[in-house]
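Hello support,

Our group uses your service weekly, and this is the first time we've seen a run hang past the timeout. The protein is Glycosyltransferase. I'm not sure whether the cause is the sequence or the server load. Input pasted verbatim:
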Amino acid sequence: MMANTKVAISIVTYNSKHIFKVLENLKQEFGQDPQFRFVIFDNNSNDEYKNRLKEYQDFVDITFYHENNGFGFGIIIIYCKLLKNISWYLILTLFWLGKIY
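Update from on-call engineer: The timeout came from a worker crash unrelated to the input. Re-ran successfully.
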């Protein structure tokens, strides 16, 4: 994490059909702006999905978990383990993913 990161945008996934278009849009809009940090927690999606998601590791910090423990679990892990000293924390839910793709 870069010291000047101000906003963390977190997404919990499980075989989401919209995530790849969302990531393309976010990458185009924000590029490598160090003020933003994008974080994905994947709840044990299928291997094809995980392999496709790995293509975005240059832009997004991705944690692949070995089982699906739900949205809340993913958010807690992201917050507790990965997002210390961030000024703002945004959670993108399935509802919003569908709106921005």
